């Protein structure tokens, strides 16, 4: 639904060049909620502004719903109208709501429809329908100043939906809200995603947001996407920083003569007694150092940090057993980062060579 390829943005700032985006390839599938996470200055806002062409990319392309927006933007003034139309089908939600204080809630929602030239009656019908959708049917005549932060953001979302967009872009939409309001706004975005089949690309610096509603995620650092994939794929990627952040599990080894392994359960494997099978099959005592169950991207996932007696070399086979059961198993080394464990090749293959 949204594809960027080689997207690069270089700002000229006081005679210096700042590379905010450095060859970003992003692919957001239709109907998914996609989270982009990264620290301040990573280039997240630049990415969103380049996707709706509010900012002209220095190079690279942006395709939304099959339309190459960069090509439109490159064709000069005559393409302006086409670009405006394409942009009106991309909803945008902002951190600071950007509502007009002098207009009522309804008039704020009607604003984009006015710009699109929709007639008065159709405008107000649409605005009221959208306010109903975001749970603010009774606030149509109120002014933004009379609303709470969460209500203001609901107005912002209703306004973003005015042009019947296929895509909603959100730049830190919940960063100015308290945790409870954040949850309700995220739930609203999830509902809209499901009810309207809306594709949502949201930018955040909070891992919790990704955990609560995203199907897929990307991690940005210094203008680059350093990791991306569905939440399931990320959790199954050994050494994934996002997976570790999404789902941390703690616990330290009891001594040097043992092997610590992080085990991630998802899908079928979550329901099977794998750890007790492991213990019985290899006749080893397993200590559980830490464990957690959580819902990530709408799916139940479990993580467990276990300790096996003996050094890594002595545990290659039990760890291979875990992997054969469809679990992800990573050995935790002293200096932190986990190393992936390869399942030993089956014996038959060795013979065949
Ligand atoms: N209009 C601009 N002019 C010059 N530099 C900018 C401009 N907008 C952003 N930058 C710089 O680009 C980098 C990425 O910024 P931004 O996309 O806002 O990151 P994020 O949203 O992840 O915090 C930063 O170094 C920022 O200072
Ligand atoms: Mg930003």
Automatic annotation (TrEMBL):
It holds the Pfam family ABC_tran. PROSITE patterns: ABC_TRANSPORTER_1, ABC_TRANSPORTER_2. GO terms for cellular component: plasma membrane. It comes from the Bacteria. Residues 2-247 form the ABC transporter domain. SMART domains: AAA, NIL. Keywords: Amino-acid transport, ATP-binding, Cell membrane, Membrane, Nucleotide-binding, Translocase, Transport. One of its GO terms (biological process) is amino acid transport. GO terms for molecular function: ATP binding; ATP hydrolysis activity. Belongs to the ABC transporter superfamily. Homodimer. Forms a membrane-associated complex with FtsX. Part of the ABC transporter FtsEX involved in cellular division. Has ATPase activity. PANTHER family: AMINO ACID IMPORT ATP-BINDING PROTEIN (PTHR43166), METHIONINE IMPORT ATP-BINDING PROTEIN METN (PTHR43166:SF30). This is D-methionine transport system ATP-binding protein. It comes from Streptomyces atratus.
């Amino acid at each position: 639904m949204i594809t960027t390829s080689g997207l690069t943005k270089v700002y000229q700032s006081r005679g210096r060049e700042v590379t905010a985006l450095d060859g970003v390839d992003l692919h957001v599938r239709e109907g998914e909620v996609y989270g982009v996470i990264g620290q301040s200055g990573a280039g997240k806002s630049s990415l969103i502004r380049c996707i709706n062409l509010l900012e002209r990319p220095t190079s690279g392309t942006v395709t939304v719903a099959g339309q190459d927006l960069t090509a439109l933007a490159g064709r000069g003034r005559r393409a302006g109208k086409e670009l405006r139309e394409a942009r009106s089908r991309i909803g945008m939600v902002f951190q600071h709501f950007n509502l007009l204080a002098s207009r009522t809630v309804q008039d704020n929602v009607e604003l984009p429809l006015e710009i699109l030239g929709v007639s008065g009656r159709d405008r107000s019908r649409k605005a009221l329908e959208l306010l109903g959708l975001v749970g603010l049917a009774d606030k149509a005549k109120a002014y933004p100043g009379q609303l709470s932060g969460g209500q203001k953001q609901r107005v912002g979302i209703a306004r973003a939906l005015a042009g019947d967009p296929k895509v909603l872009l959100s730049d830190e939409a919940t960063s100015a809200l308290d945790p409870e309001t954040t949850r309700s706004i995220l739930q609203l975005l999830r509902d809209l995603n499901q009810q309207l089949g809306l594709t949502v690309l949201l930018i955040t610096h909070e891992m919790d947001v990704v955990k609560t509603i995203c199907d897929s995620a990307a991690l940005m650092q210094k203008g680059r996407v350093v990791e991306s994939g569905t939440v399931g794929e990320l959790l199954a990627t050994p050494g994934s920083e996002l997976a570790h952040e999404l789902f941390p599990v703690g616990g330290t080894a009891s001594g040097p003569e043992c092997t610590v392994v992080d085990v991630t359960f998802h899908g079928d494997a979550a329901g099977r007694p794998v750890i007790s099978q492991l213990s019985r099959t290899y006749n080893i005592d397993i200590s559980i150092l830490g464990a957690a169950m959580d819902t990530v991207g709408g799916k139940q996932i479990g993580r467990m940090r276990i300790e096996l007696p003996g050094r890594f070399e002595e545990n290659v086979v039990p760890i291979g057993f875990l992997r054969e059961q469809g679990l992800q198993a990573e050995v935790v080394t002293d200096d932190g980062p986990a190393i992936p464990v390869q399942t030993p090749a089956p014996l038959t293959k060795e013979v065949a060579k």
